Every structure is written in structure tokens, then in C-alpha cells.
Amino acid sequence: MSLESIFVLLKNFLETKPACVQAISLLSPEAEIRIVVDDKLECRLVNKEGRPTLTREPAPLADVEFRVDLEALRVLEGADGENMAALGIDIVKEIIAGHIKVCICRGVGRIFKGGYWKIIQAAGPDFTIFLAQYGLKSFKKWIDLFKALRRT
After folding, report:
1. What is the spatial distance between Cα 42 and Cα 48, in angstroms, rounded to a whole number?
2. What does the alpha-carbon distance between residue 4 and residue 22 come to, in Å, rounded to a whole number?
3. Which of 18, 40, 70, 152 counts the highest number of beta carbons within 10 A?
4. CATH number corresponding to 3-149
């Protein structure tokens, strides 16, 4: 698959799936996400006027970085994109499987200021109950996770 085809697939997923649109709309206008697919394609994702906007360019001020295997992108593209909880669970399953790697590039405080925490909350109880199975049962556990994901 060419880099342009991968970019189009990712752009379509992030900019048209209702769950993605809803999630990204919760981010602050200053929030920036770096997405790297198969260590070949680097993209920048932002909330521009309430809509996700993906561009094929570096994200030098990224708060969060997602390194995504192409296979994970294909799995997620085929997933139900209507429900934030269901899509969030699918993403976490890909993280657990090692097909997506996440790191926090800036301070943990950016998770809250940037609106990322709002996404977790908006995904609702189905999502948080699923995550509780993996030990994320309290706010302290979340902070510990964010600190562990912090790029040093």
C-alpha cells in the first residue's frame, strides 16, 4: 500500500467516523497529536473549528504520539465508528496487542488542558468499565499510567 493510500485511509477514518469526530471535537484548539503509521508516514491531527483535521506533516508540538501498525489501522477502519466507547475499546485492544504504541510527548498536565481527559469521560461507562479490568479503577491509577507513558 502506498503512503498516499495509507494517508487517505487514515484521513477518512479520523475525519468521517462519528466517534472520531466526536472525540476530536473535545480537544482544545491547541492540542496536537502525532500519528506515525508503520514508521513511514507521519501525520498531524488537530481539532480545527470542532472538526478533526489530519495533515501529512510533522507535529512538532504534539501532546500525544500514536505509532500505529498498518494492520491496526485496517482493523479500526473496519470497526463500528458510531460509538465512542466501542471504538475506544477497539483501540485499547490494539494497544494491548502491541499494534499501537502511545506516548505522552509533553507534560501530563497537557492531558487535562488539551481535552484528552474529556474524551475518556465522554466515552462513558462501557469504556471505563472495560479499562477497569486492566487496573484503571481510580484517578490515581490514571495519573500513574500517564506518567508511565511520558516520553523521557
Report:
1. 19
2. 25
3. 70
4. 3.30.1050.10
